[in-house]
């Protein structure tokens, strides 16, 4: 797949301006020096303890996420266009959530089939006719974007529930500052280290009005066995707030308190990293040991804000994804600035027939899957694997979608054989309040480290890179080294 992909750096005399200084640095730096820096980066990440968990595997599930020392670079004009599209998209997703849990005008207008929403297991009837503080549902969104040409970005996936990965974005930048201070000084790079400050401001803005100007914020985690537990603790430390498990909270008269050495303390905002099903055993799964009994009652009484709001999963379900451009037109009266990847809904007979006939050239995904699980990349699959997925689709067509196999862009990556192009995606993080949408420049670049692979998920062997957004576009003559 790599040979047909857009190379973001370019080649020879066709080097793209944003990469010229990096290309010169790579040309001058001996391979042994790069290898030594890569080893130093691994030691640094191990010392900090940046790991992720892989479920379903025996032994210690924690792994060190691979980090590539060659940054991915975006020019300022590229980023400005991308961020405008991201802001537009998240505004529409929030409007959609407010509508489907309210008057359901988009369903009445026939823009989205009603059964895809109200019959979806991610739709939470408990949220009907309830407006969260500030009217925002997804305060923190992670939008996965891929690139196929110089000016062509596609949204691959919306993450509106509990998007993870921002800690890697921050730690990657910190690692690059330690490893290559002179290289960073040669570029004017937009900072990312203010993200925790922006996140805290977003969470405080979601607090109930009675909380006053300085509400108490905490992170609600499922615990140390969660794959993103490192991130929960990291963000709590960076924001100066507590990270809590369900057992650390009590509820009296629909008011939420956390246990402290000085006695119970009222909590106004919970940045919850627990899935809806486990959030409150009285409202959702009664066997949950992770959540807080009575939390939904306290939420609906207006005594606490939950970020993101329960029920956001209906906005990032892959069966709803094809309709996001229609949401933008319906709610905002605008044309989408970012395109969707063409998507086939296997529950529709005509779509299903096409998918079954073209499995060898399509990517098939679970409508509610994540992390690269439950996915088949047709061109790379065996005949047996394609046959297995065909049987799955016939048995439960509503569970699957399919998309064309995109030639994801490549960027230079340090691998065992030297420097080689590898496919990447990008997850920017979008913060929303009732007054504005804010996006820290860049995001988490994930890289498929295996040659020819299109799967960038860390759980499937992918790694990460630091993402540089230049504060200004370089001149066509290049950036001085």
UniProtKB/TrEMBL annotation:
For this protein, the record's InterPro entries field holds:
ATP-dep_Glu-Cys_Ligase-2, CP_ATPgrasp_2, UCP005522
> What sequence ranges are listed for the domain Circularly permuted ATP-grasp type?
71-448
Return the Pfam families for the record: CP_ATPgrasp_2
Which PANTHER family does the protein's record reference?
A: BLR5612 PROTEIN, SLL1039 PROTEIN
Protein's name in the database: Circularly permuted type 2 ATP-grasp protein
List the top taxonomic levels of the source.
Bacteria, Pseudomonadati, Pseudomonadota, Alphaproteobacteria, Acetobacterales
